[in-house]
Design goal:
By secondary structure, the chain is α+β, with helices and mostly antiparallel strands. It has helices spanning 2-17, 98-105, 112-138, 146-157, 216-223, and strands spanning 21-34, 37-48, 54-57, 59-65, 74-81, 84-86, 159-162, 167-176, 181-184, 187-190, 197-205, 231-240. The protein contains 5 helices and 12 strands. β9 (181-184) and β10 form a beta hairpin. α2 runs antiparallel to α3 and α3 (112-138) packs across α4.
Length: 244
């Protein structure tokens, strides 16, 4: 029994020492933008718990449901209903820009406003992609694979760097369309407004998973850097409001 206590103590101590990042949800604010949509601002922080400057791949201002997160740059989220994790694909979805979020709130996607906004989104995406390709070519890149160049550049532009003991604050804007029924294949979930809901954020940091989107030199540089980290880092749980 004494050995068991010692083993558990040592395991806990090593685990605490190996914790490189701490993720904390600080606040969540909501606003009903119309009768069908509620906007959520999830404010959180990432703290470097080490004495080293560390880096990792992450698109910190967007999120994706755990059930759809096998290969993603996004912050992952889990929903708990009355204390139980429910692996639902929703109620939040990923929006990388304010324009994408605004488009999702529009009730009539056939309106002139919606068509104009969609065109703006598509034009902006095309401009970004062309700029990525031009930058790559200006830097001496030889690949003609436009799609590969786009994803490589996007990946390299979404490296978060934290100095020793530094804390950075981030905000995720997302939307609930007030649909209380969420269906995943044969499973169906119901967001009962009288239930207690909590959200948990997960940084599921990966490196070699993106090897096909990187140049061999990129990957070699990243994998040889002990302070370019990977792993899973889980936040606190924070209450969500799905009441009318």
């Amino acid at each position: 029994m004494r050995f068991l206590y010692f083993f558990l103590f040592v395991t806990f101590t090593i685990s605490a020492q190996n914790k490189k990042l701490e993720v904390t949800i600080n606040s969540i604010t909501t606003k009903d933008v119309n009768e069908k949509n509620r906007l959520y601002h999830i404010n959180y922080q990432i703290e470097n718990k080490t004495k080293d400057t560390i880096s990792f791949f992450l698109l910190p201002n967007a999120l994706i449901a755990n059930t759809a997160s096998s290969s993603t740059l996004y912050t992952v989220y889990k929903i708990y209903q009355n204390g139980k994790f429910e692996d639902m694909d929703g109620p939040f979805f990923e929006y990388e820009t304010d324009e994408e979020l605004e488009y999702a709130t529009l009730l009539n996607k056939e309106s002139e406003e919606a068509k104009k906004l969609l065109k703006t989104i598509q034009t902006n995406q095309a401009i970004v992609a062309m700029n990525y390709y031009k930058q790559y070519k200006d830097d001496g890149g030889i690949s003609e694979d436009f799609k590969w160049v786009y994803y490589r550049t996007k990946l390299l532009k979404n490296i978060v760097k934290l100095n020793p003991s530094e804390t950075k604050n981030f905000s995720i804007k997302t939307l609930w369309n007030k649909n209380r029924f969420i269906k995943n294949d044969e499973l169906e979930y119901y967001l009962n407004e009288n239930d207690t809901f909590e959200i948990e954020l997960i940084l599921d940091l990966k490196t070699d998973l993106f090897k096909d989107e990187l140049h061999e030199k990129d990957l070699k540089s990243i994998l040889s850097n002990p302070n370019f980290i990977k792993g899973e880092f889980v936040s606190n749980k924070f209450k969500l409001d799905f009441k009318e």
